[in-house]
Design goal:
Layout (H helix, E strand, L loop, with lengths): L2 H13 L3 H13 L3 H11 L4 H17 L11 H16 L2 H11 L33
Length: about 140
């Protein structure tokens, strides 16, 4: 699947308004190595409709919040905490907060929050999309 097809799938799922889709794509935007950049390129080439803009902005806001939050529920499997901590560390090293804030400004979704730590709890980490060394690039 090419990145343009991935972004088209993302928009279709976000249009549904489902919480699971929003959580999934927020995690992809926050933690996956390539998805946020593929979305930025897609938006540059094809401005979204007003409805798509709102759906994307909601997912981007949730992604920003996810960068500062770890699950706190009692009984959470420790391996999930380790996976989320590793994802957060990589995303912060990539400067993902700045990238997501720029994306929100481009979507004209208002001023991004200064600090969104603790604003959201994503209790189920999803597998991440992204380029792996040795795999062919598509899209």
């Amino acid at each position: 699947m090419s990145w343009s097809e991935t972004i088209a799938t993302m928009l279709q799922e976000l249009r549904s308004g489902g919480a699971r889709a929003q959580s999934y794509w927020a995690q992809q935007l926050a933690f996956a190595p390539v998805v946020v950049h593929a979305l930025s390129l897609a938006l540059r080439d094809h401005p979204p409709s007003v409805a798509d803009r709102e759906a994307i902005a909601a997912a981007v806001s949730l992604a920003l919040s996810a960068l500062g939050a770890l699950p706190e529920q009692a009984g959470v499997e420790p391996s999930l905490l380790a996976a989320m901590a590793q994802r957060q560390a990589r995303a912060l090293a990539w400067g993902r907060r700045r990238t997501l804030q720029r994306l929100l400004r481009r979507l004209a979704a208002g001023t991004p929050p200064e600090s969104s730590a603790g604003a959201v709890r994503l209790l189920r980490p999803y597998p991440l999309l992204g380029w792996s060394p040795g795999s062919p690039l598509q899209g």
